[in-house]
Each structure stands twice: as C-alpha cells, then as structure tokens.
From TrEMBL:
Superkingdom of the source species: Bacteria
Native species: Devosia salina
Coiled coil regions in record: none
GO MF annotations, alphabetized: ATP binding
Protein name: ABC transporter ATP-binding protein
Domain ABC transporter: 5-233
Taxonomic placement: Bacteria, Pseudomonadati, Pseudomonadota, Alphaproteobacteria, Hyphomicrobiales
A family per Pfam: ABC_tran
InterPro entries, A to Z: AAA+_ATPase, ABC_transporter-like_ATP-bd, ABC_transporter-like_CS, BCAA_Transport_ATP-bd_LivF, P-loop_NTPase
The family this protein is said to belong to: Belongs to the ABC transporter superfamily.
Keyword Transport tagged: yes
Keywords: Amino-acid transport, ATP-binding, Nucleotide-binding, Transport
Amino acid sequence: MAPVLTLEDVHTDIAQYHILHGVSLEVPEGGVHVILGRNGAGKTTTLRTIVGLWKARQGSIRFRGQDITRLQTPDIARLGIAFVPENMGIFGGLTVEENMRLATADGSFDAERLKRIHAIFPAMAQFWTKPAHALSGGQKQMLAVSRAIIEKRDLILIDEPTKGLAPAIIRNMIAAFREVAAETTILLVEQNFHFAKALGQTVAVIDDGRIVHRGTMAELAGDAALQSRFLSLSVEA
Ligand SMILES: Nc1ncnc2c1ncn2[C@@H]1O[C@H](COP(=O)(O)OP(=O)(O)OP(=O)(O)O)[C@@H](O)[C@H]1O
C-alpha cells in the first residue's frame, strides 16, 4: 500500500541554523509510527515542517501523493492532517466542551463521533462542563488528542504525549491511542521507548537532524544490539 506521508531529503532552517539535514521518511497507512530521538535531535522540527509551521528549504513532503511542501498550515489541516503540539494548545479557562467546540469546523458536534470520543476518553465526558485547567496532565493530553479527532482525520501528528506523565497514566494512554489508531494513522514523536514500543508498528530514529535508523518496531524491540546503538541517543531507553 502507498504510504500516507512521504518526506524526501527535507532540509529545514530555523533562522540562520540548519536543523534538518535531509530527512527522508515514509509513514505507512494506518496504525502508529514513531520517531524516536534525544532532546534537540529534530523531532519537533520534523513535525512542524510537515504541517508548514517551518518551511522546508529543500526536499519534498507528499501527503497521499499530493505535494504539500509549500502549502500553508490551514490548507494542510484541511487536507486531513492534525497536529497535537507538545504544549497541547488547549485553553485552560474554557470548559472541555468549549475546547472541543473550537476544534470543530463549524462549532457543531457529530453526535456519533462525540460518543465514540467519550468512550475512548471517559474523562472528557466526566469533565465536559469543567474548565480545562481542572484536568490532570494526562487528561489534558487526552483533551488535546480528542480535539484532534473531533473531525475525522487521515493523519495525526502527536508530539511527546507522555512528557512529564506518571507511568500509571502512560499505561492508560496506550489503550486509548490504540483505539484512535484503529481509524487513522498516527505519527508519534517520543522519547519514552516503552510507550513507543507498545504502540508503534514502524520506527525512525533521528539524531542531529538526520534519520539514522528506520525499520519495524518489532525488529528494534527484539534486538538489543540495535537498541544500544540507537536508543542510547534517546533518554528513556
Ligand atoms: N525557535 C528556534 N530557534 C532556534 N533554534 C531552534 C528553535 N527551535 C528548535 N531549535 C533547535 O533545533 C534543534 C532541534 O530542535 P527540536 O525541537 O526539533 O528537537 P526535538 O528532537 O523535538 O527535541 P525536544 O525533545 O527537546 O523537543 C535543536 O538544536 C534546537 O535547539
């Protein structure tokens, strides 16, 4: 099957700094695909370049065969790509419902879809009328993902959802992310190898703005030598 997203030799500059040095990546359709790498390796820059928040200076990004390299971020979003940034982009002073409503195309909910989201993330129903700042760190992350899937998406980019969360919360998130991945494709940036391993079908390891390893997660998970070679680059291996 053709990949849903393809990056070919992508170079990105931030101000005068050359950050991505020719990133090539294929994201297969369906399931969870992971980018691992240490702090500052270029994970966030890769996601931001995909959604047009940074512009690739060189190389190409194709989504379902369409060249999106030079499109503006809102046009990329309209094609069906959602981005959950590390800071989650939620409004603490607004209720969960209001946060969700702002994420819809026209302010209205599809009842079936909302029911499904409440089933995947029960805390969203429980806190529906409460301000988002009342949510725990893990629940805020759930809200951020719920917002991303309030409209049906083809691809969701999620930046380090486990950052700062307790292991018990992270374990709960695994099942919820599997449910989300059953209907869409997730490109996940992580430093937590246990979480990545539980969810990922494929993995790319990035270091210093370059992809240094690509393969299946099963291969990396089952190969101690590969892990010590590549995951020493990642802080929570
Ligand atoms: N706004 C910016 N201005 C200057 N340099 C930046 C900026 N944003 C990122 N960088 C640099 O780009 C490099 C890659 O950063 P990036 O955020 O993509 O890394 P990351 O792998 O996501 O790491 P982290 O886990 O810390 O988020 C780092 O060296 C970082 O210092």
